[in-house]
Design a protein that fits this description.
The chain has about 110 residues and is of the alpha+beta class. It folds into two domains: about 30 residues; about 70 residues. The protein has three helices and six strands, in the order H-H-E-E-H-E-E-E-E.
Length: about 110
């Protein structure tokens, strides 16, 4: 075994580095989309937010928003889909997402 390590140490280091990079960049992370629906387009009205279940893809998230819009029938509503959000307690507990997509226009402040 020691001879194998001595002869192939460069390959072993490369494999370990590539594995470390893949794990730290979440290459294998599952996509998790969730919609946030803002009734009356009010971004400041956190108690009124409507959160969707989690979806495996962006299209299902978008479809949920359009179904909710049809159900509510309010032209002032806005919504967005967000990918892989996590609470960042270093930033006061706000959600930080890998990607967001405005679906029903920009929410108001």
């Amino acid at each position: 075994m020691n001879n194998f390590i001595k002869q192939n140490w460069i390959i072993i280091i490369i494999i370990l580095c590539v594995g470390w990079i893949l794990l730290n960049n979440n290459i294998f992370a599952k996509e998790e989309w969730q919609a946030v629906y803002y009734p009356d387009g009010c971004l400041a009205c956190e108690n009124n937010y409507i959160f969707s279940p989690f979806f495996d893809n962006k299209n299902d998230c978008i479809n949920w928003i359009y179904a909710k819009q049809k159900e509510r029938n309010n032209n002032n509503d806005t919504a967005e889909c967000a990918l892989n959000c996590k609470k960042d307690y270093n930033l006061g507990g706000i959600l930080v997402c890998k990607e967001t997509l405005d679906v029903l226009g920009k929410p108001s402040y």
